Structure formats: C-alpha cells, structure tokens
Amino acid sequence: MVVLTEIMPHIRLSDSQTAPYALLPGDPARLDRIASHLTNVEQLAYNREYRSIKGFYHGVPVMAVSTGIGGASAAIAVEELSRIGVRGMIRIGSCGALKKGIRLGDLILVNGAVRDDGASSSYVDSRYPAIPDTGLLIACMESARALGATAHVGIARSHDSFYIDEEEKICAYWSGKGVLGSDMETAAVFVTGGLRGVKTASILNTVVEFEEELTEQINSYTDGESAMMRGEQMEILTALEAFVRMDQSES
Ligand SMILES: O=P(O)(O)O[C@H]1O[C@H](CO)[C@@H](O)[C@H]1O
Ligand SMILES: O=c1cc[nH]c(=O)[nH]1
C-alpha cells in the first residue's frame, strides 16, 4: 500500500522529510552558512521565502527553514513545521541593538518579546506572554557560554516596519524600558510555538548598534563586517549545540 503524506502548502514539506529540530533564519541565504556545519545535507524545497535543508549535527537530525521577513510568514512556518512533527525550533536572526554597549556580532538570547507585531495579536490576546521554552533557553545559554560567544540574555521587541514616522521615538521608549534589541519575528515564533506546544527559542545577532558615540562607532565599524559574520556563525553553532543538549535530555 502506498501511503501519501500531506505536503504543507507553503513550506512544501511533508512528514516524510521532517526532523525533530529546525533552525529558523529569516534570510534564505543564511541556509548556505548553516549547511557548512552539517553533514549529509539535502536540499528539500524552495517556495516563496521558505527554503529548506536537512542534515545532521553530531548525529542529530536537524532542518533549517527560512521564514522571510515578518511575523506573518514566520507564524506560517511554525504552524506547518509543527504539523509535520518538528518539536524544537530556534530562530537565528539579526537585530538592531536598543542598548548602548551591545556591539556588532554580540548575541541576544531572548527571554521574552514585546508583541508589537500583527501576527501574534491575530492569534491571542496581548496579555498572553511571548516567551521561549525555559529548557531550550537554558540550553542556548549553556551552549553560548561553552562556545565563548558574547551573549546578552534579555527582552527583544518584535515590530512590523522600520519606516513608520515614529520609529526613533518608539525605539527610544523601549530602550528606556530595558529592551535589548529589535527584530520582526521572535514574538510570532514564541506565541505560535507556545500555543501549538512547540519548544522555541530565539538567538539574535546584532547588526546595528544603538546610538553609540561617533568615536565608538568608528572603532567598531572598522571590524564591523567580520564581527557580524562571526556573530552569525556563533548564533548558528549556539542553536545547533542547544539542539544536541535538548536531544540528550529527551533520550
Ligand atoms: O536577519 P533576519 O532573520 O531576516 O531578521 C531581521 O532582518 C529582517 C529585516 O532586515 C527582519 O526579518 C528582521 O527580523
Ligand atoms: O535594526 C534592525 C536590524 C535588524 N532587524 C530589525 O528588526 N531591526
């Protein structure tokens, strides 16, 4: 008997292609850098913003699926991946810092997100918290420490646009409340993951510093490009090592 498995409409994957863990970058191009850390890499699908690969990291099967820009497409990815059996998902994204002293390439391990996006609001009342799975966050913290990454643990703000008239004022407001950085997908990933029983975490690589003094900016930008690339490598490795820890703790 031939068993037909359902292909998800956006990610174009079925449960025959799945893995228990998935990295969720926004940018499809980031998959090539992820692939260099995996063995037996298979290209799976590429539909719209959703590009996917599968491979192994220290024997643990892992997928990477890009989610594009914004909470709406990230929520679709979490939904469809959970339907094909993915149990742990870590967003590996880029962010702008909202706190002085967070440098290019520093990581933010997000322990909660301000829900300034539309996607998470369409799911559930805004009093529902956008938080990661505690165990997976701890695994990310332990992995970052073991790798020697510069990592800050704290709150991110997820938004829907860079280009609104009040952008600067809004960033200053949330900076004043102790928020560390801004991205566009973390809140949607946390809320949909929480509602669907998926363990999620989010690791953000700083690509824009916050209101640094000019001399500090000049010093950091001389080495800016390579610092950001190192940050991206570090977030990928931190997430992969966290999945190994999750796999060990569950077996
Ligand atoms: O680098 P990624 O993961 O795409 O993340 C950030 O970059 C994009 C904006 O430039 C948004 O998706 C934002 O969240
Ligand atoms: O400043 C930034 C950089 C990346 N992503 C954001 O959401 N903001």
Automatic annotation (TrEMBL):
GO biological process, one term: nucleoside catabolic process
InterPro entries, per database record: Nucleoside_phosphorylase_CS (IPR018016), Nucleoside_phosphorylase_d (IPR000845), Nucleoside_phosphorylase_sf (IPR035994)
GO CC field: cytosol
Keyword Transferase: yes
Keywords per UniProt: Glycosyltransferase, Transferase
Stored Pfam families: PNP_UDP_1
Similarity section: Belongs to the PNP/UDP phosphorylase family.
Protein name in UniProt: Uridine phosphorylase
Organism: Lacrimispora xylanisolvens
